[in-house]
From TrEMBL:
Family: Belongs to the glycosyl hydrolase 26 family.
Keyword Repressor attached: no
Protein name, UniProt field: Glycoside hydrolase
Family matches, as InterPro entries: GH (IPR017853), GH26_dom (IPR022790), Glyco_hydro_26 (IPR000805)
GO MF annotation, one: mannan endo-1,4-beta-mannosidase activity
Amino acid sequence: MQLRLPLLTAAVLASTACAQVRAPLYEPADGKVLFGAWVDTEDPSTNATNIGIGGDSPVKFNQRLGSNAAVFHFSQRLPLDISPYTQEEMTVPLKLVEDTATDAILFITVYPIAWTYTDKDVQKLAWQLGNITDPSLSNRRVMLRFAPEMNGNWFSYGQQPTRFVQEYKRIVDNIRSVTSRVSFVWAPNAADGYPFGVPLAAYELSALDTNKNGALDYGDDPFTPYWPGEDYVDWVGISLYWKGNPATGTPPHDNSASPADYWEQMVQGGPSGSNPAFPFYDMFALKYNKPLVMPEGGAAFALTQAPNNTPLPANVGQVKIQQTFWKSYLGVLSKYPKAKMFINFEYLKLNEDPVANANNGVTRDYRITWDSATVAALKADLSALGSTVQWASSPGSSSTPGNSVSTTSKSSACTSVFGVSLLATLAVLFV
Ligand SMILES: *[C@@H]1O[C@H](CO)[C@@H](O)[C@H](O)[C@H]1NC(C)=O
Ligand SMILES: *[C@@H]1O[C@H](CO)[C@@H](O)[C@H](O)[C@H]1NC(C)=O
């Protein structure tokens, strides 16, 4: 008896959902995952953003890994930055992905600078993505992560959920009016340590104080105030990093390995700091049946510390640090079947996290394909997963799975949801 009502409700909800929500664009088949990187392609002679050492490329990444990554991540700003060197607008370097001669997905993060863009800037972004995805032009699959880590206090647009939702929808609506081939990623930061210390001046307490105790604190829901609704989201994402044991120093630099279940703790909550009352995977990936991406993430091997570039003890060492981190997700894929894409932050990051008024930043190596022992361990662990890992293919080769924007995938998902709902309805009628 208890079963009947939920089943009937589920059936009604499922058929409603069928009418409105399209299947997430570029989601691989169940049992498949996509692996890739955010490589540091900055030109070292013109280091305009200068957070790393530059000089890398998707082609070089594939060569080091010995496989064709399925996705490459780049970022640009809104409005676009102008290069001080060439005076050109700094858009993502599409050519570097085309150089791989594969069908890798171009994953683009767009950072809005304090919401200071105009309708014209938005239109330009929509056209840019329309051109990149146009089958008669570049014909490349694009995933767009707009205003990521919006629940953090480190970007000017952070912790302003009402404005975020309004702007996120504005971007999606504008792009959809130009092309249906962009997949939209909604991606807060992992909530370890939420609300991350001092709030921004512009933070929006009324919307963020979800437990209504008058303060923004660890007991508040770090995600839901920013949720734009399932119609606006193809993938959900969480950025997460391991930088060392925070208990051993600020900024962390002890070269310890993360807990073995670190990824799981970051997406579901756990003692490493993410509040288990807000299990992201359950709340968004499972609840709305959306694939989950780690849009950026990695473990840091700390090399030196400012101000004198003092070499730091290796402790457990680079292989152990990085392998523990990637195993924390590659080892639990069957437990988290909606987790389908992982993008390593492939950077050597210079002088990161200096504490205010103390020049003690740490140079951290997040790269997993440079050190020979580390990349050997990575290749072994990826190859042990066999055909679970879906690599990019070369255009013209027989299998380019999930490459099309498919009305077929939309309608088949719709049919299957409808089929399930029909079955559920029948089950209710005949129990
Ligand atoms: C690149 O960055 C370094 C370190 O911040 C700086 O000293 C150098 O002037 C920069 N090079 C250019 C061309 O801006
Ligand atoms: C490509 O960009 C131009 C503007 O540069 C725009 O007029 C055109 O509509 C875009 N094409 C698509 C398919 O979005």
